Amino acid sequence: MKSLIRPAVTLFLLLSAVTGLLYPAAVTGVAKLLFSYQAAGSLIKHGNEVVGSELIGQSFSGMRYFWSRPSATAPMPNNATGSSGSNLGPTNPALVDAVKARVEAIRAAHPAQTGAVPLDLVTASASGLDPHISPAAAYYQVERVAKARGLATATVRQLVDQYVEGPSWGIFGDSTVNVLKLNLALDKA
Length: 189
Description:
Blueprint: H1 2-34, H2 36-39, E1 43-46, E2 49-53, H3 93-109, E3 132-133, H4 135-149, H5 153-162, E4 164-165, E5 176-178, H6 179-188
Antiparallel strand pairs: 1-2, 3-5, 4-5
Helix pairs in contact: 4-5
């Protein structure tokens, strides 16, 4: 029995050091060396102040700003420590009621819009933290934002055009707009 315990403990300590210390340190070092911006959290700075991350959504509710997707995280919206969806199925009455209420709120804020409300303005993403909206959702809000800021609609539309990001590597996913980056550019304009 004693002859089996010593090799088992030695192997346990060796593997713990390799998988728990050496490998994570090597991966972190390579990431910081080759992808320092991403390894640091893809943080967006305004001057010297960190205002958010490219990867985590933020709530914007003012008429002067583009609005993000709704967030289903708890206990507050866009809570990065509580990433989760609502887990409500498409036939769940609570989800149906929540989406109807969001559609009514979006329509009330955009009375000139007669088309369908973009889905990503009324439904939360699976993580509840999505920082992007579709270009259609951004263009849907252009008139409201332009009016609230006293800017020409064409000027705001052109700003949205500049912040449309194509699919990843040109082929994966859809075009998106990072709401935080767009709102920061809007504040600078």
